[in-house]
Design goal:
Belongs to the UPF0215 family. With about 190 residues, this protein is an alpha/beta fold. It has one domain: archaeoglobus fulgidus dsm 4304 fold, CATH 3.30.2170.10. It has seven helices and seven strands. The chain has a seven-stranded mixed beta sheet, with helices on both faces.
Length: about 190
């Protein structure tokens, strides 16, 4: 992959009822090339819109991939990867970092009625997770519109197991959360 190839990483940090969602454009060469921020509701169903909003705020046609950290940020606010792909016309890769039997049982346990059914409907439509070995670490990738997800993840992961766009986005989301918390406390 060319060093100038860009990906948008989207990650979140939450406290309270709202989650800070950060987007970070990072080149395959590890150069950070832009940020965007929005929010989604903890326990809500608006994370898909938040991912799309991060992409749209940037107005960057040069972004070639969208990485999402996990599939259910902000306490089961399930991302619809197909809807993100349709909205941004880019390959979308969800990367998670822990082995799991899936979220079905947890969603069943935590929600009931329509709230449960809507989450399960979105969750069950997503592609299966595929294990990918990256730098001697194992991650799990769901991909929509990407023919070679393992190659793409590896190209954006120069060390460790976390793709650089997601690492930078997570740092940005956490920093924005800390700034907001300091502003709330009068610091």
């Amino acid at each position: 992959m060319k060093a100038g190839t860009r990906a948008l990483g989207v990650a979140e940090s939450y406290r309270g009822e709202e989650s800070t969602v950060a987007g970070a454009v990072v080149r395959a060469s590890r150069v950070v090339d832009g940020f965007s921020f929005t929010s989604c509701t903890v326990g809500g169903l608006d994370s898909t819109a938040a991912v799309v909003e991060c992409y749209r705020q940037l107005d960057r046609e040069d972004v070639q991939y969208v990485f999402v950290s996990g599939i259910a940020p902000a306490w089961f606010n399930v991302v619809d990867l197909h809807a993100v792909h349709d909205a941004v016309s880019r390959p979308v890769l969800s990367v998670s970092f822990e082995e799991s039997e899936g979220l079905d049982a947890a969603i069943e346990r935590e929600f009931s009625g329509d709230e449960r059914d809507r989450r399960l409907d979105v969750y069950e439509r997503q592609p299966d997770r595929e294990p990918v070995t990256v730098n001697d670490e194992r991650v799990f990738v769901r991909a929509v519109g990407c023919e070679n997800p393992a190659e793409v993840v590896r190209a954006f992961t120069p060390e460790g197991g976390r793709p650089e766009p997601l690492r930078v986005a997570r740092l940005a989301a956490r920093a924005a959360d800390r700034r907001e918390a300091a502003g709330d406390s009068g610091l």
